[in-house]
Amino acid sequence: MTNKLDGKRIAVLATDGVEASELSEPVRAARDAGAQVDLVSLRSGQIQPESGDTKTPPVPVDAVVADVAPEAYDALILPGGTKNPDRLRMNRDAVDFVRGFWDAGKPIASICHGPWMLVEADVVHGLTLTSWPSLRTDVENAGGHWVDEEVHVDHGVVTSRKPDDLPAFCAKLVEEFAEGRHDRAGAATAGASRSA
């Protein structure tokens, strides 16, 4: 993976309750590949990750989502943990931030409960993705197609189900982030043909 992401700037959108491994492992993978990675959150200071229900050491925030724009970044990582995306999706700035990456064709990687943010940003219609199984109905109600796979990529959106999938998720996100922007014009068309 060395130097595949040299010169790339990656945003990780997370807040309190983020699953610790789903934050740390993708960040490590992106940095090991040469990227600059910023933790973007709802407020300045630190966030409190968790491993299951156990708190892990706090992580410093690099930027507040209300103060940054997708234009400053090349790609986006959305880690999971049940509490993290549930809190983020109630914040309009966070939802708009995610939507901005989609609209710009920039790659997005999301794991576990992270795809809740894709649903909230209204970008799931026509996409095939995976997630923690309990999100299946949310994905399908938003017009997406849900699959039970270790990692799935569609229109530059990388998704995985759970922490056990992190090795495959991290490898694929580096690959997709290295490719850069994606043409998403066909995403809605693909969804329409699947549902027809």
Number of strands: 13
Residues in helices, as a percent range: 25-40%
Q: What gross morphology would you assign?
A: globular
Mean pLDDT: 93
Layout of helices and strands:
Layout: E1 9-13, H1 20-32, E2 36-41, E3 46-47, E4 50-51, E5 54-55, E6 59-60, E7 63-64, E8 75-78, H2 83-88, H3 92-103, E9 108-111, H4 116-120, E10 128-129, H5 136-141, E11 145-146, E12 151-154, E13 157-160, H6 166-179, H7 187-195
Parallel strand pairs: 1-2, 1-8, 2-7, 8-9, 9-13, 10-11
Antiparallel strand pairs: 3-6, 4-5, 12-13
What does this protein look like?
With 196 residues, the protein is of the alpha/beta class. It has a single domain (9-195), classed as Rossmann fold (3-Layer(aba) Sandwich), CATH 3.40.50.880. The chain has seven helices and 13 strands. It has helices at 20-32, 83-88, 92-103, 116-120, 136-141, 166-179, 187-195, and strands spanning 9-13, 36-41, 46-47, 50-51, 54-55, 59-60, 63-64, 75-78, 108-111, 128-129, 145-146, 151-154, 157-160. The strands form four sheets. A seven-stranded mixed beta sheet has the order 7-2-1-8-9-13-12, sandwiched between helices. The protein has a two-stranded antiparallel ribbon with strand order 3-6. A two-stranded antiparallel ribbon has the order 4-5. Helix 1 (20-32) crosses helix 6. The protein is globular. Mean pLDDT is 93; it is low at 189-196.
Brief descriptors of the model:
196 residues; alpha/beta; Rossmann fold; seven-stranded mixed sheet; two-stranded antiparallel ribbon; 13 strands
Write a brief structural summary.
By secondary structure, this protein is an alpha/beta fold. 33% of the residues lie in helices and 21% in strands.
